[in-house]
TrEMBL record:
Protein's organism: Rosenbergiella gaditana
Keywords: Aminotransferase, Pyridoxal phosphate, Transferase
Classification via PANTHER family: DIAMINOBUTYRATE--2-OXOGLUTARATE AMINOTRANSFERASE (PTHR43552)
Descriptive protein name: Diaminobutyrate--2-oxoglutarate transaminase
Top-level taxon of the source organism: Bacteria
One GO MF term: diaminobutyrate-2-oxoglutarate transaminase activity
Keyword Nucleotide-binding in annotation: no
Similarity annotation: Belongs to the class-III pyridoxal-phosphate-dependent aminotransferase family.
Length: 462
């Protein structure tokens, strides 16, 4: 039986008619109020390449958001595009549930080789295609493995918007209209390099927080039942680009091992060379029991995977599943991305670029004291915006200035620079550019950022 051929639209940058405001107005008509990025970054993207995106009005922007860290190699890397074309022309199915394909076999072998000890102690679990899906699976598995129900998480942590993931997320805003959160989630303070949660600061604050965690687990009258798992980020991303002190993270690992508590490391944003190591936990030389991976692992397409220590793989067949856990295109783009990151030592290059960029920002900070604190690892950098005209607290920290942070994000956008805010009150400007960003482009970023500071009315000191 013959059927009429469906007309397929040809898409290229010249076919997008209209201006940014027209597209944004239509989006507001079509979509729910829940959309967020278009409110802060009001553009309609026509094309993208590397660290650059171009809107429908043909204005170019230096993209330091990169899909919230998803695009490790930037937009439309030619090898990534070729891997998509190879799958399409190969005859492989695009949807496979968790059925086996040669491509999945290659991807699995390579990803495992990047885990501690080349993955000999780990197996993989392909979950639904988002980081939140993987977090849900990790929490469920920890409870199933240990027979316990409680979980310890940390203030400032971000793990997703689904039920369990939101329950272990620190941000209170999304929880306000949600009742019946997952029970027995105990939050503990996470070290902060600028605003110590104990009001002590420095090494003394880190030592106190380490002791506090260990004492809570050991104290038979703490009121907190022994947890199934501890979940954390080695560098908090949405929480304001806050790296965990190495000795604190090592102490967490030691205590959880001694008590048979599974340690879940959420590497969704910080993983895959972003911090100057392949995984952020590698800075502390520890081995998690469960590693949560998404964003960059799919090379720009939706994919989420758990790395599970084999001794804790307590699943029965089918006890956690997901329709879209077999995304072949994402495995192809992910495999290509992982190979480039590993074989070209992108992590090593990122470490050097990150230290150079932080040094340059520190020099800028001397002229603009509204940049209260610069922190991060590799190309995961945050700048906390403060009120230097206001009195400091007892640790010498200025109060946060979220209004100025909003204005600076807008002025950056006006200057052709895209970055995101995060942290408490949204006062941290966050940099998550392509890991392949060049020295020339980093210098251009600094120029555009200083232009934004001046445009916001800030007067340089000295």
């Amino acid at each position: 039986m013959m059927t009429d051929k469906v007309r397929i639209e040809t898409l290229d940058a010249t076919s997008f008619k209209g201006n940014n405001d027209q597209f944004l107005a239509r989006q507001a008509e079509f979509e729910s109020n829940v959309r967020s990025y278009p409110r802060k970054l009001p553009l309609a993207i026509a094309k993208a390449n590397g660290v650059w995106i171009t809107d429908v009005e043909n204005k170019d922007y230096l993209d330091c958001l990169a899909g919230a860290g998803t695009l490790a190699l930037g937009h439309n890397h030619p090898d990534v595009l070729q891997s998509i074309q190879n799958v399409i022309s190969s005859g492989l199915p695009l949807h496979t549930l968790d059925l086996t394909t040669p491509l999945k076999d290659q991807f699995s072998e390579y990803l495992l080789s990047l885990l501690p000890h080349q993955g000999k102690d780990y197996c993989l679990q392909f979950t639904g295609p988002t980081g939140a899906d993987a977090v849900e699976a990790a929490l469920k598995l920890a409870k199933k493995t240990t027979g316990r129900n409680s979980v310890i998480s940390f203030s400032g942590g971000y793990h997703g918007m689904t039920h369990g993931a939101l329950s272990v997320t620190g941000n209170l805003g999304p929880k306000e209209a949600t009742s019946g959160m997952m029970t027995e989630v105990q939050f503990m303070p996470y070290p902060h390099l600028y605003r110590c949660p104990l009001g002590i600061g420095g090494q003394a604050g880190i030592d106190a927080l380490s002791y506090y965690f260990e004492n809570l687990i050991n104290d038979v009258e703490s009121g907190v039942r022994k947890p199934a798992a501890v979940i954390l980020e080695a560098v908090q991303g949405e929480g304001g680009v806050n790296p965990a002190p190495i000795e604190w993270l090592q102490r967490i690992r030691k205590v959880t091992q001694e008590h048979g508590i599974l340690l879940i490391l959420d590497e969704v944003q910080a993983g895959f060379a972003r911090t100057g190591k392949f995984f952020a936990f590698e800075h502390a030389g520890i081995e998690p029991d469960i590693i949560v991976m998404s964003k960059a692992v799919g090379g720009g397409l939706p994919l989420a995977v758990l790395g599970i220590k084999k001794e804790f793989d307590a699943w029965s067949p089918g006890h956690h599943s997901g329709t879209f856990r077999g995304n072949q295109l994402a495995m192809a783009t992910g495999l290509t991305t992982l190979k480039i990151l590993k074989e070209q030592d992108i992590a090593g290059q990122v470490a050097v670029k990150g230290e150079w960029l932080k040094a340059q920002l520190t020099q800028l900070q001397k002229r603009f004291p509204q940049i209260g604190h610069i922190r991060g690892l590799g190309l995961m950098i945050g700048m906390e915006i403060v009120k230097p005209q206001a009195p400091t607290d007892h640790l010498g920290c200025y109060p946060a200035d979220p209004e100025l942070a909003v204005l600076l994000q807008k002025k950056c956008f006006d200057a052709g620079l895209i970055l995101e805010r995060g942290g408490r009150h949204g006062c941290v400007l966050r940099l998550l550019p392509s890991l392949l960003i060049s020295q020339v482009e980093l210098t251009l970023f600094l120029e555009k950022f200083e232009q934004a500071l001046l445009s916001a009315g800030l007067q340089p000191q000295g």
